[in-house]
Amino acid sequence: MSGQDRCHCQCCTVRGLTWPVVVITVGVLFLLDRLHGGALYFGNTWPVILVVLGLVHLASAMVSREGHAEPLPQVPAPPAPPGVPPVNPPPSGQGQ
What we know:
By secondary structure, the protein is mainly alpha-helical. The chain has a domain at about 10-60. Helices cover about 45% and strands about 0% of the residues. The protein has helices at about 10-15, 20-35, 40-45, 45-60. Helix 2 (about 20-35) runs antiparallel to helix 4.
């Protein structure tokens, strides 16, 4: 999809932030693990990632979808008109 066809509604904008927010959350959790350890060990704090995912999806459900652009449907190529020879005709039986 080209940049012109991309939807710029608030819902799609918030959904577009999902993975950057998850990556930042994972980075913060690993930083806390390295700095403090113990109770902030990554094995104990990984559910925070699920909470962040839920919050992003909740936020995208609550914002306006005004101006949402649905993707254009894929239109199949029209069939060749009858009577037109194929581009590469099969070889004839002559010359064998």
